[in-house]
Amino acid sequence: MVIKKDTITVTSPLLPDLDAFHALLKEVWDSKWITNNGSFHKRLEEALCAYLKVPYISLFTNGTLPLLTALQALRITGEVITTPYSFVATTHAIWWNGCKPVFVDIDPANCGMDPDKIEAAITPRTTAIMPVHCYGKPCDIERIQAIAERYGLKVIYDAAHAFGVEVKGKSILEAGDLSTLSFHATKVYNTVEGGAMVMHDAETKKRIDYLKNFGFAGETTVIGPGINSKMDEVRAAYGLLNLRQVDAAIDARRQVAIRYREALRDVPGIRCLDEQPDVRYNYSYFPIFVDDAEYGMTRDALYEKLKANNIFGRRYFYPLISTLNPYKEYSSATLSNLPIATKMADQVLCLPMHHELTETEVESIINCIQR
Ligand code: T4K
After folding, report:
1. Which residue minimizes the CA distance to atom 9 of ligand 1?
2. Of 243, 348, 228, 369, nearest to 306 (Cα)?
3. 87 pocket-lining for ligand 1 (C-beta < 6 Å)
4. What is the pTM of this model?
5. How does pLDDT run across 157-196, given as a tens digit for each residue?
6. Choice from 3, 9, 10, 87 to test ligand 1 binding pocket (greatest atom count within 8 A of CB)
């Protein structure tokens, strides 16, 4: 895939300086240790713990495998309550663990799971809740935790979008039993492909580190049916460099978000998500919601119009996961169970949002929406 000149894409990867990367690659080459918990892997885990303000982290090869591994590690069985308004990986991870996803509706304020809808979805087979901090907007972690404790359920947060997000100065990644991150090229912070799991204690980290390395706990001991999802030294070195520039990238995104918000505030039929004062956001996505009657144009017509002007937004997350072939027959997948998620999926358009957008590009996007 080649991106044509003058095209404005929904995102653009944060890339480390090539000379600095070469210098680190030289170290990797000299060491002849290129994967399996090498020195860059260790350094990146330490650096990420410090940056993200979390006690323990385990690197993965993408953001899907920590979801799969989290469910395995907590021995989740039966039914898992989740959101249909996410990337397919969230629900696929539940299915790959032989569990049944049970969809609940979302809160229109943050596009995360609506805590008011969780209890009605709990059955004797429910063992876990898997919410998503969609677009990096924090879920209502306190209410979700209270419900989990009342019913003895585990909570695994898909925090793929929530790199660096904090509430009242505390990392959102500390919520629940485990949280997972994606470091995919399209994310605020990337290691090309990559991901991580955040946990509360050293014992759990040890177990997860075994599980991501086939279950090996030494040369001849296997503690369980693990998988291979280790991050290699090349991507860990790349990740160390990107960590140095991620704050600047988040700040550049923040400026774009401020401008979008200010320019679109008075456009009838266009809604943005509100921000809370005590949250440090990462501006990973900028979704707008198009009310066609008020705006005078459907979301899809606006999406096509932007495309005709070389502006490539994306309809994350349309269609809803619950409408996709593998899941559409579930009793929780009905439109009547998911009215808010359905409406938001039908109205959403994520505008281009990345650290390299120029003022001219941002103004051309705004002009196209304002008409
Ligand atoms: N949970 C959630 C909530 C997630 O959103 C995701 C992933 C996961 C779990 C799983 O994490 P990973 O296993 O992926 O680490 C993208 C990403 O592939 C995916 O990581 C992401 N969520 C999802 C929301 O979006 P696509 O199919 O939209 O990406 P693609 O290839 O169409 O790229 C979008 C645009 O980004 C391109 O038009 C241009 C730009 N781009 C992309 C790439 C890959 C670049 O400029 N350079 C690039 O190298 O899925």
Report:
1. 89
2. 369
3. yes
4. 0.98
5. 999 999 999 999 999 999 999 999 999 999 999 999 999 9
6. 87
